[in-house]
C-alpha cells in the first residue's frame, strides 16, 4: 500500500520539475536599435559629431555583449 502511494507521487514530482524548467527558460535577447547617425566622408577619414560617435559606440557595445 505504501509503495503504491510512493509510485503515485512520481508523476506529480516529474510534472513539477517539468513546469519549473519551462518557467525558467531565458528570454531571447532583443537586438539593439540601430542609431541614425550622420557621417562626413573625407579622404581616408570618416567624421562624426560627438553625439553620433557616442551613439555608435553604445550600439557596438550592445551588439558585442549579446544584446542586453
Name the shape in a single word: rod-shaped
What's the rounded overall pLDDT mean? 78
Number of helices: 2
Biggest sheet strand order reads 1-2
Beta-strand portion reads 5-15%
Which regions have little confidence, pLDDT < 50, spanning 5+ residues? none
Number of strands: 2
Most strands sheet: 2 strands, antiparallel
Derived from helix and strand composition plus strand pairing, the structural class reads mainly alpha
Q: Taking Cα atoms only, what radius of gyration do you get, to the nearest Å? A: 26 Å
> Share of helix among residues?
40-55%
Number of domains: 1
C-alpha termini separation? 54 Å
Topology order in helix (H) and strand (E) letters: HEEH
